[in-house]
Amino acid sequence: MAGVQLDGIVKAYGAVQVVHGVDLEIADKEFVVLVGPSGCGKSTTLRMIAGLEEISGGTLTIDDRVVNRVAPKDRDVAMVFQNYALYPHLNVADNIAFGLRIRKESKDVIASSVDEVAAILGLTPYLERRPADLSGGQRQRVAMGRAIVRRPKVFLFDEPLSNLDAKLRTQMRAEIKRLHKRLGATSIYVTHDQVEAMTLADRIVVMHDGRIEQIGTPMELFLNPANAFVAGFLGAPPMNQIKARVGRGDTGPVAEIDGQHLPLPALDALRNAEGREIIVGIRPEYALVADEGTSGRIDCRLDLVETLGSEALLHMTLGEHPFVIRTETLGRLSALDAASGFTVRPDLIRIFDAGTGAALAGQERAA
Ligand code: ADP
Ligand code: MG
After folding, report:
1. 217-254: per-residue pLDDT in tens?
2. Closest residue (by CA) to atom 25 of ligand 1?
3. Could you identify which of 103, 161, 342, 360 might form a hypothetical disulfide with 287, taking C-beta atoms 3.0 to 4.6 angstroms apart as the criterion?
4. What is the pTM of this model?
5. Which CATH superfamily is domain 4-230 in?
6. Which one-letter DSSP state was computed for residue 84?
7. 41 CB under 6 A from ligand 1?
8. Is it the case that residue 105 has pLDDT exceeding 80?
9. Which atom of ligand 1 is nearest to the CA of 41?
10. 228: which residues sit within 8 A by CB, 6+ positions away?
11. Ligand 1 atom 2 nearest Cα
């Protein structure tokens, strides 16, 4: 097993640069997830690590060896793709064994490795079947088996669950997590799905337009997003973000929104900051439906209630801004239909500079 280090990694296609100097240090046995919107450079970065794309600039180190010019097969990495990339004419056992045959392992070693991996992945009953006769989830397991059986230094995953239906995706997500606990292998996992990132990662790397926005544990990023982009990307539904100006309230700073005053935390950065343009960030979970007359309440208008079962999403309008509240339903669904305002604890509000999007200093919270 091994660590992976990216120093100033750049990718350009001709004159167009798509990855702009990525610095990232991944520890031995760590599970790191690269997450970001489509086109932000996740796959390109992963494929440069795999050796499937040439590196245009910077240094890539795997297990203390610079591998920029090392062929993919000699990097000792194994990649699992979204489309499985199985050999259709080979059965499950032969698909799993493929890499070992190339390496000219003995028949006995191949047979026992395939048996062991098939048992880990629950594929033992299907060893004779061809990929066409398997479900999507089983195919993805074969693809993982083919990677595991080689005992690579590093596992690379590119959206491995995106072709599966929602239920299977959740199930396979848990399996991948269990597998990582069991094998303890260094893993780099690419996804556009923030739930996969939150649930799988030891550390998440949020990417945007070919750059890293922030690196941290899932809870660090959820609680202390460095900027409005990260705040809007992690969490579902996303954090409400409302442009406002800082005003002076009776007891401290407020945000002036739609002619109303929302009490803000007493940050140093908000002292004597009247008129400063900010983005007020409020997670849908932290806004509490409040009756008229409640102190600190912000009035808004209810557009729609989406009932999810134990919870509901209230789609409100605040001035001209959409604003979503996530709340429990038990015994209060009819009351929610009459919701017309909310309160939020000032220390749960996140405040960003309206120009740069950077989080103002002094808001960091511990999990
Ligand atoms: P992601 O995996 O995050 O969705 P990619 O890494 O696939 O994004 O792509 C990053 C950017 O690189 C995109 O803008 C994409 O259009 C561009 N790109 C990818 N492959 C090529 C290529 N062969 N030639 C030119 N541009 C490419
Ligand atoms: Mg991709």
Report:
1. 999 999 999 999 999 999 999 999 999 999 998 889 99
2. 13
3. 342
4. 0.93
5. P-loop containing nucleotide triphosphate hydrolases (3.40.50.300)
6. -
7. yes
8. yes
9. 6
10. 241, 279, 281, 352, 357, 359
11. 43
